[in-house]
Amino acid sequence: MQQVTVGTKYQIVIPKEVRKRIKGLKPGQKVKIYSADENTVSIKITPQDWVERTYGMMTDAWKGIDPIAELEKMRDEWEERLKGFEKEPGSKKV
User: Fold this and answer.
1) Which residues, in sequence order, are CB contacts of 85 under 8 Å at separation 6+?
2) pLDDT score at 29
3) Region label for 60, one of left (φ > 0), alpha (ψ between -120 and 50) or beta (otherwise)
4) Whether residue 23 has pLDDT greater than 70
5) Residue 45: CB atoms within 10 Å
6) How far apart are CA 30 and CA 46, in angstroms?
7) Alpha-carbon distance 48 to 24, whole Å?
8) pTM of the predicted protein model
9) How many angstroms separate the CA atoms of 3 and 12, rounded?
């Protein structure tokens, strides 16, 4: 257990040894703080939302590929498949 000092603005510095043990703690990150009782405080890392966690994860996979052109190509393929279904006897128009 480490002892820290509460500053005049009620701020504390999390000791280096504690920061090393906490996965995902970064400067500027939001944390939740709870008061268990009048003498106990607990700090918990706020999990990132889905957008922050997944932002940029497909950058390498799409490297050198134009996503707009790829989507247009996929749309064209689906439209061709749909035309094939419409031509079949007894098929309903979509």
Assistant:
1) 91, 94
2) 86
3) alpha
4) yes
5) 14
6) 6
7) 10
8) 0.47
9) 10
d(CA 10, CA 59): 41
* Tokens read off for 26: 């970064």
Q: Tokens standing for 76?
A: 């064209």
Q: What is the pLDDT of residues 31-84, one digit of tens each?
A: 899 999 999 999 988 877 888 778 888 888 888 999 899 999 999 999 999 888
C-alpha 4/C-alpha 12 separation (Å) is: 7
Average pLDDT over residues 6-17: 94
- Token duo for residue 93: 């128009």
3-state secondary structure the chain: CCCCCCCCCCCCCCCHHHHHHCCCCCCCCCEEEEEEECCEEEEEECCCCHHHHHCCCCCCCCCCCCHHHHHHHHHHHHHHHHHHHHHCCCCCCC
